[in-house]
Amino acid sequence: MQRLLWLLLLIGVLLFFMTSCQSNDDTNSSSQNNSENPSDEEDVTANQEYEKLPKTPLQKLDQGEQVVALQYFLEQLGYSFSDQGNYNEQVTWAITDFQIQQEDLLVSGIYDEDTKQKLEEVIQSEKTYKPGKGLPAPTEPAFTDAGTEVISNPYDQLVLVNKDFSLPADYIPDDLVIPNVPFPFIEDIPKKYMRQAAADALEELFADAQEEGLELYAQSGYRSYDRQDTIFAANAAENGEKHANKYSARPGESEHQTGLAMDVTSPEVNFSLETEFGETKEGKWVKENATNYGFIIRFPEGKEEITKYQFEPWHLRYVGQKAAEEIMNQNITLEEYLEK
């Protein structure tokens, strides 16, 4: 009997060691598999990190992980980027191209909530999508006869138009509307128009100015390439081309063609466009408050060497609130801002 008990105890001990060995083998096998596939965990982390589009609005010059996430999803549609994490011209073009291909999006080159929702719809639909169908990808730069580089993305809300960068001759914004603000004339003519986003912002600016007891009037907004050509030709014929180019833009080089600019005035200066407007109560208020509505004084005093234009306190340019605040708070020009 005693021998039987010892035999059963020995068998129990052997079974315990065999089970322990098997458990260790399984653990070692699992560890070995994990070490052989380290990218599995990384892939899971990446998928979790980019399973949703950024909630924060993004635009040109932004940097960081949110931009990387946006690029990740744009790459699912066929876009490619040489620089990760920078909202540069490539990303601006991709967003612009995407917006143009959607019927119900304002085209700006800026990633906003409406663009986010539409991107989600397109990605989830798994339908065929063709990058460049709305706006062909930039190629080798073209130049005007005057040697000015022709802009490849005129829809960009932060587009730089000056004596070095020209809009295409055939560019006409397709979202031009008349802002509901006072004009010193009643005719329905092109200079009443602005692009939708700029017009909406101008209405808010004018409404708040009116509440302050100010009399602002919109004088000149959109101007076509052909109209600018006529104006510049007349000035050049009277004063010579070199002199005319000091205060007038060549065709294609005028911000008015973007539909993002509006000249404003007041009865105090007899509705004219002159530097004295900056000394009026309306002009001072505009300078102090334009940023709240996404506008900048495009040609500020003391920056003539950079802008190549005289001081124009009446010339408002829409760039969006974020860029406007950064530009005006730093007392810089759009040229200096984009150079950064």
UniProtKB/TrEMBL annotation:
This is Carboxypeptidase. The keyword Nucleotide-binding does not apply. Residues 25-37 have a biased composition (Low complexity). Residues 63-119 form the Peptidoglycan binding-like domain. InterPro entries: DD-CPase-like (IPR052179), Peptidoglycan-bd-like (IPR002477), PGBD-like_sf (IPR036365), PGBDSf (IPR036366), VanY-like_core_dom (IPR003709), VanY/YodJ_core_dom (IPR058193), Zn_M74/Hedgehog-like (IPR009045). CDD domains: LD-carboxypeptidase. It holds the Pfam family VanY. Residues 192-320 form the D-alanyl-D-alanine carboxypeptidase-like core domain. Residues 1-23 form the signal peptide. Residues 25-46 are annotated as: Disordered. Keywords: Signal. The keyword tRNA processing does not apply. Gene3D superfamilies: 3.30.1380.10, PGBD-like superfamily/PGBD (1.10.101.10).
